[in-house]
Amino acid sequence: MGSDEIRFAAVRSVRLSGGSKGELSLSSAVDPLTRFKREQLRCIALDEPWDTALTWADAQTDLPEIDVPDRDRVVAEALMQLHDEGLVYFFEVSDFGDSYSRTPPEEDKLTRERLAEVLSAGSRAEEGEVAAPLLGVRATQKGRGLAVRLAADMNRGSNPKS
Asked: How far is 138 from 87, CA to CA, in rounded Å?
């Protein structure tokens, strides 16, 4: 795949990450972006392999009250924040086989600039479904540790601070 080509995948508005929304909900005191970002970190770290199209599918389900252009911005912002905080990294995938399920070498990890370029494409309607940018995403060790702590806090019913 060329470096300027953006791959899209069809997504449906269904919960693909397992579990019900109720069992993982955080306190309403947490803003929607933070809540969505935390849930995505949990999915990326604990439901591997994960990709950006799955994040867009979750956004359709978790943030239905937000119109599509704003929802695209929320998804892109959440993913960029996770990247910038050193919690996840992204890589190009060419199929849903070995390319998708692999742990990429360091040189295959996307730069912030390339990530921003791909995410800026947003989603688009395609044959009755939504198509969204497709990148593989994996948690860093730091991200996995935070996801485990967040999951433990949620199981105890507390509202984590970070």
From this structure: 9
